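Q: Sequence in, structure out?
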Amino acid sequence: MLEYVRKVFQSLHKTQNVKIIITSGVRCPAHNEAVSGVPKSDHLDGSAADIQIYIKGRKLDDSVVLRTIKCYMAMMIDYIALTTNRGAVHISFRRDLL
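A: Exactly. Output:
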């Protein structure tokens, strides 16, 4: 999964000239609980990431990130949502592509 996510984000970085920061990826159960993650979080099996995107050193608004990711990776995403309490966009990837 990690290699898949890396390739997807690397491609987005190269084609859109943006900096992508993964603020949360794979989590162990203890860390997931510590950050108030849901019990069956996709982070537990590595099929989710929370990201921020920067252009020229400026963080994009989460709603812009949400639209960008939806357009760019629509066929790869199972679920996408704003996680405003963490200042990032949550993406769950389709498991059949992993």
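The beta strands are 19-24, 48-55, 58-59, 77-83, 88-93.
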